[in-house]
Amino acid sequence: MYIRGDHVELVVGGRLDVRSAADARTVLHSAVDDGAGDLVLDLSELDSWDATGLGVIMGAHRRAGRCGRRLVLRGVPPQMQRLLVATRLHRILAIEGGIGLESLPRV
Predict the structure, then answer these.
(1) Which terminal Cβ of the chain has fewer Cβ within 10 Å, N or C?
(2) Distances in Å between the alpha carbon of 48 and those of 15, 59, 79?
(3) What's the gap between Cα 31 and its chain centre?
(4) Cα–Cα distance between 70 and 87 in angstroms, integer?
């Protein structure tokens, strides 16, 4: 897993899972704490995430809200969009461009 960027936009790539969660949490919390306005997470380079990775995203979302910021997801890959829909988190998280429910393959 890698994260590059600053307190305005971060690109997350690789695997966001139990092995990378602590490092990702540290970087995301620092970005939230050090900036103002929307924090954009570009997930277009993310290969996969598990429940722990999703928890890191939700933790950053809550922390951003407490700091008066908004976490915005950009470039969410289709398989991860399905997970957000299945967990109904697409209703809570800000997703740039939204999720086209009709375009997601049925499982």
Answers:
(1) C
(2) 5, 18, 8
(3) 13
(4) 20
Q: Do residues 1 and 24 lie in contact, with contact meaning Cβ atoms separated by under 8 Å?
A: yes
Amino acid at position 5, single letter: G
Strands 94-95 and 39-49: unpaired
Q: What is the distance between the alpha carbons of residues 95 and 74, in angstroms, rounded to a whole number? A: 6
With the C-alpha atoms ordered 46, 49, 35, 5, is the resulting torsion angle positive or negative? negative
pLDDT tens, residue by residue, 11-43: 999 999 999 999 999 999 999 999 999 999 999
Q: What is the DSSP letter of 16?
A: E
pLDDT reading at 106 higher than 60? no
Q: Where are the alpha helices (DSSP H) in the chain?
A: 21-34, 51-66, 78-86
